[in-house]
């Protein structure tokens, strides 16, 4: 997957067709590779109350356009991390004039070395799938939070297309039974989970429609690897939701003071 992300961030910053895809699907081009549109980002801001003077960490920030947007909207200081060097370099170069509010560094979420008791909010938009040890990663994130700190995590779980229907365990769809929910519980964390499955379905269908229309332009720009990745995701999610075997949640954790 790292090869995919290296190629992805090498091209999307300057791709007209990818910019149009993001604008039409997510409502704004933030070079997203996650599945949150502007309404979902608004929900993230609403649950966390992110605002001036707060310190946030965006885990798996890619080229940092989502972090920049959230910081511009709220006045919060946001630090982004991602394991793709080029994406972090793009983020640093683009936001050099906003360095008092935005910082970025390269790091692997499977080898985290975060400063303790530093952040008021940790954000993760479709990145914790890449943790090799979710319980351990959540434990490390908790250590990096200040007392009263929060985590806001967009996370989906469902049947992947290659898993036979009768082998997928439907009881893992409940918010406390997904791999992330189980990892939060294993860390003794209480959470609220807001269900965004209906929005996920609408966006998967929209992605398919927009991709079908933009296919010749993805081809002309030599970006069929992105087209194939995006359409595979959209088809898999749509099918799983139609089978009742997929959920998307916004998990919100607040530590005690
Ligand atoms: C699905 S994309 C989401 C990106 C962004 N949060 C968004 O919503 O558009 C996953 C991101 O996680 C990053 N990533 C994947 N594995 C990682 C790892 N082990 N350590 C740090 N970042 C990782 C990828 O480079 C990519 O930017």
Please tell me about this protein's structure:
This protein is of the alpha/beta class. The protein has one domain (2-254): Rossmann fold, CATH 3.40.50.150. The protein is built from nine helices and seven strands, in the order H-H-H-E-H-E-H-E-E-H-E-H-E-H-H-E. The protein has helices at residues 2-12, 16-26, 38-48, 65-74, 85-94, 134-144, 179-186, 197-220, 224-242, and strands at residues 55-59, 77-82, 102-106, 119-125, 145-158, 192-195, 246-254. The protein has a seven-stranded mixed β-sheet with strand order 3-2-1-4-5-7-6. Helix 5 (85-94) links the parallel strand 2 and strand 3 (102-106). Helix 2 (16-26) runs antiparallel to helix 8 (197-220) and helix 6 (134-144) packs across helix 7. S-adenosylmethionine (SAM) is lined by residues 5, 32-34, 36, 60-62, 66, 82-84, 108-110, 125-127, 130.
């Amino acid at each position: 997957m790292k090869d995919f992300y290296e190629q992805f961030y090498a091209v999307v910053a300057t791709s007209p067709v990818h910019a149009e895809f993001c604008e039409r699907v997510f409502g704004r081009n933030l070079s997203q590779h996650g599945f949150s549109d502007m309404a979902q980002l608004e929900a993230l801001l609403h649950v966390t109350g992110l605002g001036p003077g707060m310190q946030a960490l965006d885990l798996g920030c890619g080229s940092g356009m989502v972090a920049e947007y959230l910081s511009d909207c709220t006045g919060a200081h946001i630090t982004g991390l991602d394991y793709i060097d080029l994406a972090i370099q793009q983020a640093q170069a683009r936001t050099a004039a906003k360095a008092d509010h935005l910082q970025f560094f390269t790091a692997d979420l499977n080898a985290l070395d975060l400063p303790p008791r530093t952040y008021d909010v940790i954000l993760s938009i479709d990145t914790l799938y890449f943790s090799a040890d979710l319980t351990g990663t959540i434990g490390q994130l908790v250590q990096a939070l200040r007392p009263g700190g929060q985590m806001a995590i967009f996370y989906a779980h469902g049947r992947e297309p290659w898993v036979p229907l009768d082998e997928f365990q439907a009881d893992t769809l409940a918010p406390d039974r997904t791999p992330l929910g189980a990892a939060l519980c294993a860390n003794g964390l209480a959470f609220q989970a807001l269900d965004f499955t209906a929005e996920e379905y609408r966006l998967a269908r929209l992605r398919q429609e927009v991709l079908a229309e933009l296919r010749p332009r993805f081809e002309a720009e030599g970006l069929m690897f992105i087209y194939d990745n995006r359409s595979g995701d959209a088809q898999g999610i749509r099918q799983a939701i139609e089978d009742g075997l997929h959920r998307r949640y916004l998990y919100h954790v607040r530590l005690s003071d």
